């Protein structure tokens, strides 16, 4: 089994609380309970935005996509913006195959996602 870790960082952006979640490793079915727990805990209490940094994801299967869908739905229920940042080629391909790249805003970097939150930009692609 490959190593998988998830870090959560809370940042203040223009007086807004933003949670940045960074999964590292292979996001397969064995690791999704940890990612789901960290994503949902980052939403309690609800921040203004949740940014998921996908720059260190080596593999993303349907269970990983499903976990992101659960987090995005919960964020929407809480009126929290949901953003993805810096997806690896593997993650970008999975998002495109499911057309989620047309639904969720995807930024080239975490800094660009945070800048969008700061500007009060759209939470969905235009």
Task: Explain the overall architecture.
By secondary structure, the protein is α/β, with parallel strands linked by helices. The protein has one domain (4-119): STAS domain (Transcription Regulator spoIIAA, 2-Layer Sandwich). Helices cover 37% and strands 30% of the residues. The protein has four helices and six strands, in the order E-E-H-E-E-H-E-H-E-H. It has helices at 32-42, 62-77, 89-97, 110-119, and strands spanning 4-13, 16-27, 49-53, 57-60, 81-85, 106-107. Strands 1, 2, 3, 4, 5 and 6 form a six-stranded mixed β-sheet that branches. Helix 1 runs parallel beside helix 2. The protein is globular, with a radius of gyration of 13 Å.
Features:
126 residues; alpha/beta; Transcription Regulator spoIIAA; 6-stranded mixed beta sheet; 37% helix
Question: Which SSEs are present, and which pair or pack?
Answer:
Layout: E1 4-13, E2 16-27, H1 32-42, E3 49-53, E4 57-60, H2 62-77, E5 81-85, H3 89-97, E6 106-107, H4 110-119
Parallel strand pairs: 2-3, 2-4, 3-5, 5-6
Antiparallel strand pairs: 1-2
């Amino acid at each position: 089994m490959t190593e998988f870790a998830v870090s959560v960082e809370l940042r203040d952006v223009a007086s807004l609380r933003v949670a940045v979640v960074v999964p590292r490793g292979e996001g397969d079915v064995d690791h999704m309970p940890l990612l789901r727990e960290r994503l949902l805990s980052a939403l309690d209490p609800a921040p203004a935005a949740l940014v998921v940094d996908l720059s260190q994801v080596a593999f993303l299967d349907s269970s990983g996509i499903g976990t992101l869908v659960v987090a995005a739905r919960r964020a929407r229920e809480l009126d929290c913006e949901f953003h993805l940042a810096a997806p690896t080629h593997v993650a970008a391909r999975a998002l495109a195959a499911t057309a989620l790249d047309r639904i969720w805003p995807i930024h080239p970097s975490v800094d660009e996602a945070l800048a969008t939150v700061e500007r009060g930009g759209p939470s969905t692609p235009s």
